Amino acid sequence: MATTIQILKTVKPPLLWEPKPKDFTNAFLESKAAEPNGPNINELTSGPKSVLHESLCILGRCLPPTEPAGRETGLVVGYVQSGKTMSFETVIALARDNGYGLVIVLAGTKNTLRSQSEDRLKKDLGLVNGSDHWHHFSNPTKKLRSKIEGRIDDWSKKHSRKSLLVTVLKHGGNLDKLTEVLGSVNLTEVPTLIVDDESDQASLNTNASRIRTNRVPATAMSTTYERILGLRDVLPHHSYLQYTATPQANLLLAQTDLLNPSFSELVTPGDAYTGGYAFFKGAAGLTVDIPPGDVPTAQTPLKSPPKSLLSALRCFLLVAAQHALTRDRKSLKPKDRNRSMMVHPAAATASHKVYKGWVERAYRSLKKMIGDEHTTKPAAVAAIFQSEYASLSKTHPGIKPLGDLIEAMVEDVFTDLDHAEVNSTPEANEVDWTATRYWILIGGANLDRGYTVEGLCITYMPRALGGSPAADTLQQRARFFGYKKSYLGLCRVFLQAGVRQAFTEYIEHEDFIREALEKHRGKPLRDWRRDFILTQMLRPTRLNVIGLGTRRVLVDEWMVPRVLHRDAAAVAVNHKLLDDVENHWSAGFTRVNAATIPQLAPAKGQSPNDLIEAVPLKTVLDDFLLKVEVKDPGDAEEHGAMLVALGSLLAKDPSLKVDVYLMNNLKAGYRSRVGTGSLAASHPWAPINQYFSASANSVNDKSFFTPDRLSLQLRRFNLGHHLNRADLADIRNVAWYALRVPKRFGKDLLVEARG
Question: Could you tell me if 439 and 567 lie in one domain?
Answer without folding.
Answer: no
